[in-house]
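JOB MANIFEST
job_type = single_chain_structure
chain_count = 1
residues = 80
[input]
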Amino acid sequence: MQRQRKVRMIRLNPTRIELRIEDLSEFADIKNHYEAIKKAKEEKQKTLYGPLLNSNTSKIKQEAVQERIGYIPRPRHSSQ
């Protein structure tokens, strides 16, 4: 029979993370960059799907999800 060893974890004090003003400004710049990309993408979708989005938004979202996951809906035939 093997001997079981007790494994003790070393408890360390939490490390200290300092936040500098440069970090905040860098974060703000990156956030603004990604927001600009997001707005450009939304504008592109509005121009492409403008009339369709107003009439049947949920259908387009559903189709986009189905296309993304590779689902191909097929109509069921009734066996009556």
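[summary]
The chain has a mean pLDDT of 81.
Helices lie at 21-55, 57-69.
exit_status = 0
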